[in-house]
Write a structure and sequence with these properties.
- By secondary structure, the chain is an alpha+beta fold.
- It folds into 2 domains: 8-88, Phosphorylase Kinase, domain 1; 90-272, Alpha-Beta Complex (Aminoglycoside 3'-phosphotransferase, Chain: A, domain 2), CATH 3.90.1200.10.
- It is 37% helix and 16% strand.
- The protein has helices at residues 50-59, 95-106, 121-132, 190-198, 200-207, 213-223, 226-251, 258-272, and strands at residues 8-11, 19-24, 32-36, 69-75, 78-84, 89-90, 159-161, 170-173, 176-179, 186-188.
- β1 and β2 (19-24) form a beta hairpin.
- α4 packs across α7 (226-251).
- The radius of gyration is 19 Å and the shape is globular.
- The N and C termini lie far apart (53 Å).
- Keywords: Transferase.
- Pfam families: APH.
- This is Aminoglycoside phosphotransferase family protein.
């Protein structure tokens, strides 16, 4: 942990839940990130757990795709994690590398005590309904009209999940790709992480545009697992429906940028039902 006296604090942009700073200490010590948690997020999709993030970063400290935790502490302003700063740019392209990064994560042993996420279409739909129960629905939103019919059983092959693999949490530099913001890890279906990354809404919000068809094809080629690809294809309508519900919830809670994301996710939902 470097000395903070006289350090230069720069507020980091991009985070939608917590307050983070890049802190440059004196005496040429390496910069660190100070993340102040602003309390439990009422977020129905992405929890905000500083203890879980500290636990994961500790477990992953010998690997090269996550920040190194320096200290976890409680302050009068809230919980705080301090970890190594990873320089670079937010991910924009190079989709096969993301597939490889996901595989590295999903091969790691999950620590005990992590939350379990929805597994299989019945649980995903139950999650969707729970989100919609906190929204005001009107006849212009075709949630009932665009309802999947093909159910998918839960998988027994559950793995460690990052829980929020979106472009804003992937950093690229000359050494490769890194994942930051580990505050909502989980155990569950590999398809859960994949769905968040491939989501047109999340790509629009963090990258400005959904992935092109050729990029999605390249992603699955890099994954190299036909059975997983087929499972995801069957689950995709359920995931699109849930993400659309999440965008609606965000929009109705003052996040106007989710309006376009909602429309896009509903468009992809309708498209996926025809495949």
């Amino acid at each position: 942990m470097p000395h903070m006296q006289g350090a230069i604090w720069t507020r980091l942009s991009g985070g939608r839940t917590n307050a983070s700073w890049c802190v440059q200490p004196q005496h040429n010590e390496p910069p660190v990130v100070v993340k102040l948690y602003l309390g439990p997020a009422p977020n129905p999709m992405f929890p905000n757990d500083p203890v879980a993030e500290a636990q994961l970063l500790t477990q992953l400290e010998d690997l090269e795709f996550a920040p190194k935790l320096l200290v976890h502490m409680q302050t009068k302003h809230g919980a705080c994690n301090v970890y190594s700063h990873i320089p670079g740019e937010i991910w924009q392209s190079g989709i096969s590398e993301v597939a490889e990064l996901m595989e590295k994560i999903h091969q790691q042993k999950a620590p005990s005590g992590l939350r379990m996420v929805a597994n299989g279409s019945v649980q995903v739909e139950a999650h969707t309904r729970a989100i919609l129960s906190n929204c005001d629905l009107d006849s212009t939103l075709p949630f009932d009209e665009f309802s999947p019919e093909i159910h998918v059983a839960p998988t027994e092959n559950t793995v460690l999940l990052h829980g929020d693999i979106v472009p804003g949490n992937i950093i690229r530099n000359t050494m490769g790709l890194y994942l930051i913001d580990w505050q909502c890890p989980a155990v569950g279906d590999v398809c859960e992480d994949i769905s968040n990354f491939l989501s047109p809404a999340m790509q629009l919000l963090y990258r400005g545009a959904p992935l092109q068809t050729c990029e999605v094809t390249e992603f699955w080629f890099a994954v190299g697992n036909c059975m997983l690809a087929e499972r995801y294809k069957k689950l995709a309508p359920w995931y699109h429906r849930r993400m659309a519900a999440y965008c609606l919830w965000q929009s109705q809670n003052g996040k106007a940028e989710y309006d376009a994301a909602l429309r896009l996710e509903l468009e992809y939902l309708q498209r996926s039902l025809k495949l």
